[in-house]
Amino acid sequence: MAALRNPPTTTTTNNNNNFPLLLCLFLSITTAAAAAAKAPTIYDYLNSNGLPIGLFPEGITNFSLDSATGRFQINLTQPCNVKLENQLHYDFNISGLLSPGKIQELSGMSQQELFLWFPVKGIRVDDPKTGLIHFDVGVVDKQFTFSMFEIPGQCIDGGEQPSQSSDSYWFQERYENQGVLRADS
């Protein structure tokens, strides 16, 4: 009868053979988790507040938002214009107060009507079912279709930038505070 022998024992001389594999696995998981936890963009905040993402153009370098107050600041690479039905002008910095369905205390954005530039002071969507968005330019309340702002517009050279000394600012300053010429179009 043959005697049973114990199987030969193997000893690992280097327990670190799995270290590179474990390191790669750890880095992959960490990278995937970081991508999943990506910080929201201003477009995400617009969308979650019932506003179209195309209210602000492409080319945003960074932004900040105070979630407690809704106050935001956007920085662009350069002032620019976006051509829609009319032209919109965006300064280097755009700021305002974001809340559901509206942006108040807006600065850094102007709209061209005919040959005059008017600062956009606020934007609101009264009833999303109507498909209308309102721009408060002080003198008038301009209505646009929601669909015009479905995607962020492409910035083109700032070109003709609004000037504080332009006739539109004089016109607005003179009549806005008197309640004259307030119209919905």
UniProtKB/TrEMBL annotation:
**From the record, what ranges are coiled-coil?**
none
Report the superkingdom from the record.
Answer: Eukaryota
Report keywords, A-Z. Answer: Signal
InterPro entries the record matches:
At5g01610-like, DUF538
Look up keyword Signal and say if it applies. yes
**Signal sequence residues:** 1-35
Q: Which PANTHER family match?
A: DUF538 DOMAIN-CONTAINING PROTEIN, T31J12.3 PROTEIN-RELATED
Q: What is this protein called?
A: DUF538 domain-containing protein
Organism, by scientific name, is Linum trigynum
